């Protein structure tokens, strides 16, 4: 039953093992005085910049894409008669 208590987060400095990433972050900050990096979007903490960047790409890329392209997805609300007239023009162009 040892596998149930497996600690999977290991400190690179002293090989101490932790059950959660948050415990590893706290250890790295308090024992080794490492600068902890935070995600600007959600505040999640990271030891390495590469991990923070990966998180931002994976977790927040869709949100950023939606924000940057919101005008593309935004439907312009028109007067119903204008929509009918536009459809009639398109229809008559095909005749």
Structural account:
The protein is mainly alpha-helical and 95 residues long. It folds into 2 domains: 1-34, Double Stranded RNA Binding Domain (2-Layer Sandwich), CATH 3.30.160; 49-95, no CATH class. Helix content is 51%, strand content 8%. It is built from 4 helices and 4 strands, in the order ββαββααα. It has helices at 21-30, 49-68, 70-73, 80-93, and strands at residues 9-10, 17-18, 37-38, 45-46. A two-stranded antiparallel ribbon has the order 1-2. The longest helix has 20 residues, at 49-68. The mean pLDDT is 82.
Counting DSSP E segments of at least 2 residues, the number of strands comes to 4
- Structural class of the helices, strands and pairings? mainly alpha
Q: How do the strands of the widest beta sheet line up side by side?
A: 1-2
Strand content: 5-15%
N-to-C order of helices and strands: EEHEEHHH
Question: Over all CA atoms, what is the radius of gyration?
Answer: 26 Å
Count the domains: 2
Helical residues, percent: 40-55%
In whole angstroms, the N-to-C terminal distance is 77 Å
Mean pLDDT figure: 82
Largest sheet: 2 strands, antiparallel
By DSSP (H or I, 4+ residues per run), the number of helices equals 4
Shape: rod-shaped
Low-confidence stretches: none
């Amino acid at each position: 039953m040892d596998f149930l208590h497996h600690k999977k987060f290991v400190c690179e400095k002293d090989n101490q093992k932790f059950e959660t990433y948050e415990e590893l972050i706290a250890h790295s900050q308090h024992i080794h005085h490492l600068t902890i990096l935070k995600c600007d979007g959600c505040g999640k903490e990271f030891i390495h910049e590469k991990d923070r960047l990966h998180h931002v790409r994976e977790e927040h890329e869709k949100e950023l894409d939606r924000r940057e392209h919101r005008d593309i997805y935004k439907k312009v609300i028109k007067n119903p008669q204008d929509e009918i007239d536009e459809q009639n023009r398109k229809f008559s162009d095909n005749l």
